[in-house]
Amino acid sequence: MFSDRSFNRFTRILSREIERINDHLPRESKTLRELLSMDEPKVITRRGDELVMDKDELRLLAELTPPHYHDKLRLPILILRRIDMGEGVYVLCGGELEAHVISRVLSESSLPRDKGKILLYRPHIAFLRSKLRTTTVIGFVADIT
Q1: DSSP 20-33
Q2: Local confidence band at 1 (pLDDT 50, 70, 90 cut-offs)
Q3: For residue 26, what are the domain limits?
């Protein structure tokens, strides 16, 4: 169907488009402790815009996270839409701390995993975004192997 040259060109174009639609992702992250101490908690996006985080969401995360982890939890929490895994599949980025916090927000003791990564589905995302609209961000990837 595609020649190697056409396929490589298509892949490059797709990669550039995915990068472009991810311009809203943070260029940096900050700890929960840092953000709680700021008058206007925010990080800078790849595009250079400010992503301002809601203080009420930060306080909720502080309640759900043991105090000795406030300087370890980095925000915003990144969730990737896995285009290659089918419709409505997302992967939580980060480690066990992020998994613990998201599990507590969702009131679920365990979340499905694939190769060690926490999988989230559309209903999870809808609920998470209703509770953590400014402290979570969704990016898009074709494959994260």
Answers
A1: HHTTTSBSS-EEHH
A2: low
A3: 4-141
How far is residue 62's CA from residue 106's CA, in Å, rounded to a whole number? Answer: 15
Radius of gyration in angstroms for the set of CA atoms belonging to the chain, rounded to a whole number: 17
Number of domains in the chain: 1
**For residue 26, pLDDT beyond 70:** yes
Q: pLDDT by residue (tens digit) across 29-69? A: 999 999 999 999 999 999 999 999 999 999 999 999 999 99
Place of tokens 């999870």: 124
The CA distance from 11 to 21, in Å, is: 15
What's the token pair of residue 52? 């301002």
Distances in Å between the Cα of 3 and the Cα atoms of 9, 22, 84 are 10, 28, 21
Q: Which of 135, 46, 139 is nearest to 90 (CA)?
A: 139
Structure tokens at 56: 């009420």
Inter-CA distances, 75 with 57, 58, 90, 96, 144, Å: 11, 9, 18, 14, 20
